[in-house]
């Protein structure tokens, strides 16, 4: 895995400079359409048609291989914004990150989950903000001068929306190569890991790659949308 930058715990200003640089990076922007098509999980439709065209063990192998491929495409190679949270490293696919800002005034919204900080007014647009430590059940941490809010784009079946997530510190932009990706290990049926894309190995470091579209449930997204509107 090669690093885009070797700095650690960069400021929001430095990270936004990197984001601006990456927006014009052909090696990144030429790939998403092909990768996104493969990650839309067309495997389920193929599995329904496969038995009609194949028979015996060959059809069974094809169906099982499709199931494995469906899991493997969740974590894809590419550039990730990495950040620290409770002493651990996490990453979000770069195309989901729209902006990184410093901590600003957050307006609390009543009757929302405890991990919801509230809403912010960012250049005339209102965005909900969540505390990722609380969302993951981690101990609270006081904000400091380097506490950032990462503005991400979340896509669901209904629409696309923007969400601010509070983390401990942004780290760097990593280029994750395919051979350094690992699937999410099984932790048992009682632990929901659906929001984890997979793991990325970087020397002796392991980075948890998050599926930002699954950080919140559909019900929580509706609740945040109502909070933003009201």
Describe this structure in words.
With 230 residues, the protein is an alpha+beta fold. The chain has two domains: 2-31 and 79-229, Beta Barrel (OB fold (Dihydrolipoamide Acetyltransferase, E2P)); 40-72, no CATH class. It contains seven helices and twelve strands. The strands form two sheets. The chain has a seven-stranded mixed β-sheet with strand order 1-9-2-3-12-11-10, with helices on one face. Strands 4-7-8-6-5 form a five-stranded mixed β-sheet. α4 (43-53) packs antiparallel against α5. The protein starts with a strand and ends with a helix. 23% of the residues are buried. Mean pLDDT is 77; it is low at 1-7 and 29-73.
Topology:
Layout: E1 2-3, H1 12-23, H2 26-29, H3 32-38, H4 43-53, H5 56-72, E2 78-85, E3 88-93, E4 97-102, E5 116-122, E6 125-131, H6 132-135, E7 148-155, E8 160-166, E9 169-176, E10 181-182, E11 196-202, E12 205-210, H7 218-229
Parallel strand pairs: 3-12, 6-8
Antiparallel strand pairs: 1-9, 2-3, 2-9, 4-7, 5-6, 7-8, 10-11, 11-12
Helix pairs in contact: 4-5
């Amino acid at each position: 895995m090669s690093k885009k930058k070797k700095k650690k715990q960069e400021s929001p200003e430095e990270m936004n400079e990197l984001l601006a640089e990456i927006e014009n990076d052909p090696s990144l922007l030429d790939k998403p359409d092909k990768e996104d098509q493969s990650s839309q999980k067309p495997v389920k439709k193929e599995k329904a048609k496969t038995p009609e065209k194949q028979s015996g063990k060959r059809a069974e192998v094809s169906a099982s291989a499709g199931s494995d491929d469906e899991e493997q495409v969740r974590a894809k190679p590419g550039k990730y914004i990495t950040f620290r949270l409770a002493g651990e490293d996490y990453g979000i696919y770069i195309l989901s990150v729209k902006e990184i800002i410093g901590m600003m005034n957050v307006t609390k919204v009543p009757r929302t989950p405890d991990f919801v900080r509230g809403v912010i007014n960012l250049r005339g647009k209102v965005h909900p903000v969540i505390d990722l430590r609380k969302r993951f059940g981690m101990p609270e941490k006081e904000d400091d001068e380097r506490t950032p809010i990462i503005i991400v784009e979340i896509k669901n079946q209904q629409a696309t929306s923007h969400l601010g997530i509070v983390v401990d510190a942004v780290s760097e932009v990593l280029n994750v190569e395919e051979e350094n990706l690992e699937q999410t290990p099984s932790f048992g049926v009682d632990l929901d890991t659906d929001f984890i894309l997979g793991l990325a190995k970087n020397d002796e470091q392991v980075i948890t790659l998050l599926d930002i579209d699954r950080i919140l449930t559909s019900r929580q997204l509706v609740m945040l949308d109502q909070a933003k509107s009201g």
